[in-house]
Amino acid sequence: MGTLEEEKSSLEEGLLQDKSLELYTGDGSTDISGNPVLKQSTGKWKACPFILGTECCERLAYYGIATNLVSYLTDKLHESNVSAARNVNTWAGSCYLAPLIGAVLADAYWGRYWTIATFSSIYFIGMCTLTLSASVSIFMPAECVDTVCPAATPLQYAVLFLGLYLIALGTGGIKPCVSSFGADQFDDTDLVERVQKGSFFNWFYFSINIGALVSSSLIVWVQENLGWGLGFGIPAISMGIAIASFFSGTTIYRFQKPGGSPLTRMCQVLVASFRKSKLQLPEDSNLLFETSEKGSAIEGSRKLAHTDELTCLDKAAVMSEADMKSGDLSNPWRLCTVTQVEELKILIRMFPIWATGIVFSAVYAQMSTMFVEQGEVMDRTIGSFTIPAASLSTFDVISVIFWVPVYDKLLVPIARKFTGKERGFSELQRMGIGLFISIFAMTAAGLVEIRRLQLARELGLTDQDVAVPMSIFWQIPQYALVGAAEIFTFIGQLEFFYDQSPDAMRSLCSALSLLTTSLGSYLSALILTVVTAVTTTDGSVGWIPDNLNEGHLDYFFWLLGGLSCVNLLVYVFCACRYKQKKASAA
What dihedral do alpha carbons 335, 339, 344, 350 form, nearest 10°? Predict the structure, then answer.
């Protein structure tokens, strides 16, 4: 037994070590040089203004293009309603599909910071190319002469779509990383910072919609009244400001190390479990292979506790006699750790929840397509001023800007008293509420179209491609309801796919969240194609003809509303059976 002085010295040494640990983050984050970071001088809300400013300006740039793109294609490239909507849906879908590329690069090799930096440059080049397509005469389609509208040349289409798809590629590195990089600024092992991280996602989405508000009002007005060259040029400048804002916070950011390719690790689990498919699992899961070190074998990841689901994959972590005899426990194609196996299990458990977001995203996609085309054939005048139909998406943004602080400062504290959850609602509850609200958005759109078509028939306008004397402001409820649904579903998705994902797969899981938006756009384009093909048989004009006064756009909205109802039921079934991630103590 040591002396009293030795015990005192040992105790003081332990206290000093505890204080030293408190100085640094507990989640393994570093500075840009790879050194441990001090908690007080880095990250948290002091780093967030640079990230939120980046997102605000980048979203201003994106929505400055996306919000009114369908009008540009119909008015300047003289495309049909269906063709323009299909092109916009396909491009928007690509913008949310490309993040899979950026996510793999960020998680496996570059880290989130350098992925954002690299792809931002590609994004900026795309914005400049698009601006040239609307500014240089050789790249601009000819104007209509009376009723004759010459088609755009292959060169003009090439320059336009080169710009658009460079932008789509650029979003691939930014979208899956910015929200995760912002959340990385909060230490997940610190209770106070963990609560602040939940609030960060709300204000992150708030900043997105500040950018969207400027785009859907000012930028759309500039495009319609001062020209498309200037209307695309302002978003390009905004993207330049976004890049500058991002680099400005470099010295106070917290960085997470890339953990190697998540796709490779998933394949290793599948191969190892297949090789050992004939082995018996041990009754005690503690006998499954895991590193003895405090941290995980995967760089930048904590250990994950074993779960009893999908036990066929556990065989990848069974130590066979051959493994024991050879003494080689470092080949993951033959033997995986429990944490590596659990990573794949988490992704599989997430899949049903992820899939139900696709229909919601198809509803969301209508704001830049069918809502705009519906607004084009309504009364858009206030005195001598003509409101661009795409500007009505401002009310979606206003709805979001209204609901973010209400949710964060009012609903969360009230819900916390009843649920006992630190964030008020669980991520799954939050997403479900948004899916429910989206049904009413489609209902509102359908009711507006029924009334519009009724007026068209009463005034004998069904054979004329003209606006019906019904104020476009009747569209406000459908936009506002979509905005309210976003606050619950999209922000809930951001939280869910960050919190429930394995530590070293957070960019990938954020990309999977964004992929629902992509697939929703593709689903909307597919539904449009199928509806047009089915409803135009035998010479019929169909539901969505170029002259909407003789069509039935309301049927299309009812179809989406019905799909949303079925989707909600499937979601509730899946959410009730979902099991949360279990992270081991660090």
Answer: 170
Say whether pLDDT at 21 is over 70.
no
Q: State the DSSP code for 381.
A: E
- Find the mean pLDDT for residues 577-584: 76
Determine the Cα–Cα distance for residues 125 and 167; give it in Å rounded to an integer. 8
% of the chain surpassing 70 pLDDT: 94
Query: What helix, strand, coil percent values describe the chain, rounded to 5?
Result: 70, 5, 25
Pairing between strand 385-386 and 468-471? Answer: unpaired
For 369-380, b/e burial (b = at least 16 CB within 10 A) is bbbbbbbbbbbb
Tokens, residue 563 = 């799909």
Taking the C-alpha atoms of residue 170 and residue 409, their distance in angstroms, rounded to an integer, is 34
Q: Which residues pair with 36 in a beta bridge?
A: 30
Q: Are strands 381-382 and 385-386 parallel, antiparallel or unpaired?
A: antiparallel
Q: Is residue 528 a contact partner of residue 90, using CB atoms and an 8 Å limit?
A: no
Of the candidates 208, 219, 471, 468, the one whose C-alpha atom is nearest the C-alpha of residue 364 is 208
Tell me how far apart the terminal alpha carbons of the chain are, to the nearest angstrom: 31
Give residue-wise pLDDT tens across range 187-221: 877 777 877 887 888 888 888 888 888 887 788 88
**Mean pLDDT (whole number) for 167-175:** 87
Tokens of 497: 């796919």
Position 295 scores a pLDDT of 67
Residue type at 342 in one-letter notation: E
Read off the amino acid at residue 530: V
How far apart are the C-alpha atoms of 307 and 392, rounded to whole Å? Answer: 48
Tens of pLDDT, residue by residue over 394-415, are 898 889 889 888 888 888 888 8
Q: Report how far residue 144's alpha carbon sits from residue 15's, in angstroms, rounded to the nearest whole number.
A: 79
* Cross-strand pairs, 304: 583
The contacts of residue 194 (CB under 8 Å, 6+ apart) are 186, 187, 188, 422
Cα–Cα distances (Å) from 153 to 135, 139, 229, 301, 542, in that order, read 16, 9, 18, 52, 29
Q: How many residues does the chain have?
A: 586
Interval 415-443: pLDDT, tens: 888 887 777 788 899 999 999 999 999 99
Distance CA 127, CA 237 (A): 9
Give pLDDT, residue 561: 94
**Separation CA 482–CA 5 (nearest Å):** 68
**Residue 586, Cβ neighbours under 10 Å: how many?**
13
DSSP calls for 26-46: SS--B-TTS-B-BTTTSSHHH
